[in-house]
Specification:
heterodimer, A: 423 residues, alpha/beta, Rossmann fold, 2 domains, 6-stranded parallel sheet, 16 helices, B: 439 residues, alpha+beta, 6-stranded antiparallel β-barrel, 5-stranded mixed sheet
Chain lengths: 423, 439
């Protein structure tokens, strides 16, 4: 197996630590820092070292599949083949939820699972490995949103008769996600581990996704300035042709990776907050992007996000009616793990009190503003955003990190007043 | 669910072990055979109803065998893929299932001789009565035009006839109460409701005696208090249950003994400190999981408490759907609605309700699944609770409502907590402590 030359210095150091450890340790991976790559490397190296089977489990199917693809690609890169990967890996789980391209390595057959050196599943599907696997190493992803008992499911199903410690790597980012909780006051496995064993959690610090200045905004607002991007990523820019004139051109300007489009009013309270003005504006922007050569229906090219499902549904209806977008219009929560060249983030809330509601939560702001490889367009009410308060049932109102983002955008991004376009 | 109520009625601890402590249930081979047979029967509602209505008297069994042959083959084919070889082979499973299924058909055909065909024959009908917190899934419900109805329970897990007391009896009475609710009657009004347990080779008519009804209601109160994190109330309720426990025939004396002695030592203050701490940590998580379980039912309570117009305004439900077609290859029901959906996105869990005039919404025929796709004028739904043929038969020409729903995965979470508390090695407990954030 190769030495995984693709890894950067920090990734390599963390990998070595994990491979030489016999206990539990955590990896915090901010957006685009290569969590999945690191996990795949650790799993394959562990197999190389004769420490197998390795169980790799994540909260959601999409993430599991993502790691499987990385592992397969590394295996092939190291001289293996699709066929040889099939002999060492097994993707267990609920068949309809597994990506079509991975069905060849999917099986819930106990015999096949028991023979695999790499067993992939979701936390909830790990029961399929029960009595078939006695793990030598466990790697858990998305542990910021996983509750302890969900992690216990993997322990229950893969550590029967375990008498001594095995390495367990807990991966995730509690700045991007937390468990869904009845009262909102709940912490995932990674946050708990950081509390109990702070020295055992290491952070990846190089983002391979975020261009300049977006990476600096994410870094300063959420990661105490510890995050950086290499020059080739920092300088990555969007390529468009036949750009329109006027304000719309300013909004989609390919040389400006961070744009706030200020649109006042429009907030409607119903079954969830909606903002038709922001839908209308998003429609104009997406059409302009499409006319400038971007395939706006491709989720790799464009993501349209809003925290509130009601807003997502209205945006989806509007855009899909003109065949401008489809499943790439989604909620912020569901976009976790995705990235695209252009991201349009609708903040939805617009009021004089600065009430951002769930838009003001740090996880929502972080995820929504860190999906873009080349350009981020935030559509919202500037004054609500710049003086924003978040809200949770447990903590009530609190000053949102949107304020720090607004400070940053004012200094290093562009702000376009969009009211004239709508009029 | 009514199975929980029936379990609690036989023994409060048995219920607690399963639903609160998360002790895993090790099913028997006979039980697995029962699941396969139940699976065939659940899909055979159309075949049973058609035979009942149309077959010449005396040839019910022949008709039933012929009409269910394809369904049986379909179920066997699916089980061939998912069967996990253990001490029994798939051939043994199918042989026993076939034999038991044939015996079940005998019982059903006897019922057909006894009674004229109902006008409706509903299968796998889930009913929720939010007023009493009572919920259950009826194997079948036969309804006649004169207002009579029969609550039917398939007893497929054994070849034996059901007992005249105990679990089977409690369960069908609990289901019968839900059928009464569906007919806008007090839950104890069984005047028009006949209870029928169909078992291999026969049909049993249990009576909803006042005593059994009292036991069921007590057990229901117990279940509701036990899941509401109110452990003190649950502990009181367990002492008041009027059914004597039958520990000498219990399959779980070991697990029960473990938790009973643990709780006893905790109360007496004699539990070693490390175990006391683990107990406390695990109980904190159990309460959390139980809270999660409660929120997974929130939509039902909203539906019970509001008018359809209000529910639609709140986007909890969306009415006006009809079945546009079935994509049999993809296993999808395609539902159309003027203007499409404004509530659902791909991946959302959903409950489709076939609205019936004059009946409580949550007692109408319903189907559970997930949104597979959103189309211009509707939704594609992957139905998990019924096969497509039954969906078409039971909801084909009705006005449908799509309702928001949640998936309850708490059973496995509770099971993992039982593992940490009772079955894990010290090494694993150390990992669990780290997951919990305890040094």
């Amino acid at each position: 197996m190769s030495e995984f030359l693709d890894l950067d210095e920090v990734q390599r150091r963390i990998l070595q630590l994990r491979l030489s450890s016999s206990g539990i340790g955590g990896v915090q991976g901010p957006p685009g820092t290569g969590k999945s790559l690191g996990m795949a490397c650790e799993a394959l190296r562990s197999v190389d070292n004769g420490q197998a089977p390795v169980v790799i489990a994540a909260f959601g199917n999409k993430t599991v599949d993502h790691v499987v693809r990385y592992a397969r690609s590394l295996h092939i890169q190291a001289g293996g083949t699709d066929e040889s990967f099939k002999t060492i890996a097994c993707r267990a789980g609920y068949t309809p939820a597994i990506s079509d391209d991975l069905l060849t390595i999917h099986s819930n057959d106990m015999l096949r699972i028991s023979r695999a050196k790499l067993v992939f599943s979701t936390l909830h599907s790990s029961w399929r490995a029960a009595h078939a696997v006695s793990a030598e190493r466990i790697i858990l992803d998305e542990t910021a949103q996983a509750r302890p008992e969900q992690g216990f499911e993997v322990l229950e199903n893969t550590t029967i008769d375990l008498t001594q410690n095995i390495p367990v790597t807990v991966v995730g980012d509690d700045m991007q996600a937390r468990p869904i909780s009845p009262g909102g006051n709940e912490f995932g496995i990674l946050s708990r581990l950081k509390r109990s064993m702070p020295n055992s959690v290491h952070m990846l610090t190089t983002s391979y996704r975020l261009p300049e200045p977006n990476v600096d905004m994410t870094s300063s607002v959420f990661y105490e300035g510890k995050l950086d991007s290499p020059p080739e990523v920092r300088n990555r820019r969007l390529e468009l042709r036949n750009l329109p004139l006027g304000l719309v051109r300013q909004i989609i300007d390919p040389d400006e990776p961070l744009t706030f489009v200020d649109v006042k009013g429009g907030e409607v309270e119903g079954w969830g907050y909606q903002n038709p003005s922001q839908v209308q504006l998003t429609h104009l922007i997406v059409r302009a992007l499409r006319d400038s050569g971007l395939d706006t229906t491709d989720p790799e090219k464009l993501l349209v996000l809003a925290p509130q499902k009601a807003q997502v549904i209205e945006t989806l209806r509007t855009l899909s009616a003109d065949q401008l977008a489809g499943e790439n219009v989604t909620t912020v929560t569901r976009s976790l793990g995705s990235e695209a060249d252009v991201v349009i983030f609708q903040t939805v809330r617009s009021n004089k009190r600065g009430y951002l509601g769930m838009t003001g939560l740090r996880e929502v702001l972080n995820v929504a503003t860190s999906r873009s490889r080349r350009k981020l367009i935030i559509v919202g009410d500037w004054s609500t955003f710049a003086d924003g308060f978040g809200f949770t049932e447990s903590f009530g109102l609190f000053p949102s990190r949107s304020r720090r983002m607004a400070d940053f955008i004012e200094r290093q991004g562009s702000i376009v007043e969009a009211q004239p376009i709508l009029q | 669910m009514t199975s929980d109520i029936a379990l609690a009625a036989t023994c409060g601890w048995k219920y607690r072990l399963l639903r609160i402590f998360g002790v895993p249930y090790k099913g028997s081979f006979g039980g697995l055979v029962g699941i396969v047979v139940h699976d065939i029967l659940a899909r055979s509602g159309g075949a049973i109803h058609e035979t009942w209505q149309r077959a010449p008297s005396g040839s019910y069994l022949t008709w039933l065998s012929e009409k269910t042959a394809l369904i049986k083959a379909e179920v066997f084919s699916e089980w061939t893929e998912k069967f996990e070889q253990g001490s029994h082979t798939i051939e043994e499973l199918f042989e026993l299932a076939e034999r038991r299924f044939d015996s079940m058909l005998e019982g059903i055909s006897r019922l057909m001789v006894e009674k004229k065909a109902p006008s409706r024959f509903l299968t796998e009908l889930q009913i929720s009565n939010p007023g009493t917190g009572h919920e259950g899934r009826l194997d079948a419900l036969a309804e006649w035009d004169d207002g009579r109805y029969a609550t039917i329970d398939y007893k497929t897990n054994t070849d034996e006839a059901p007992q005249s007391h105990g679990y089977d009896h409690y369960q069908i009475v609990a289901n019968g109460m839900l059928a009464n609710y569906r007919n806008n009657l007090p839950e104890d009004d069984f005047n028009r409701n006949e209870l029928l347990i169909l078992y291999p080779g026969g049909c049993y008519h249990p009576h909803p005696t006042p005593k059994v009804q009292t036991i069921v209601r007590e057990a229901r109160d117990y279940v509701l208090s036990a899941v509401s994190s109110a452990s003190a109330a649950a502990a009181d309720a367990i002492r008041e249950l009027s059914v004597p426990k039958a520990c000498w025939i219990c399959q779980r004396p070991e697990e029960c003994g473990y938790y009973r002695s643990l709780e006893g030592m905790h109360r007496e203050g004699t539990l070693p400190s490390d175990q006391e701490e683990l107990r406390r940590l695990v109980w904190q998580r159990r309460y959390k999981v139980l809270d999660y379980r409660q929120i997974s039912h929130r939509w039902k309570f909203m539906v019970a408490a509001n008018s359809l117009e209000e529910l639609e305004r709140l986007r909890i439900v969306e009415t006006g759907y009809t079945i546009q077609g079935m994509d049999k290859k993809g296993g999808l029901a395609v539902l159309s609605r003027r203007g499409g959906t404004r509530v659902f996105l791909k991946g959302d869990p959903v409950q489709i309700v076939a609205l019936e005039k004059g009946r409580p919404i949550l007692s109408c025929m319903n189907f559970r699944g997930a949104i597979h796709g959103v189309i211009t004028d509707g939704i594609e739904v992957k139905i998990g609770s019924h096969n497509l043929a039954e969906v078409g038969r039971l909801a084909g020409d009705q006005s449908l409502m799509a309702m928001r729903s949640e998936v309850d995965l708490t059973k496995r979470e509770l099971q993992s907590l039982d593992f940490i508390q009772r079955r894990a090695s010290p090494a694993v407990i150390q990992m669990a402590r780290a997951f919990l954030g305890v040094t």
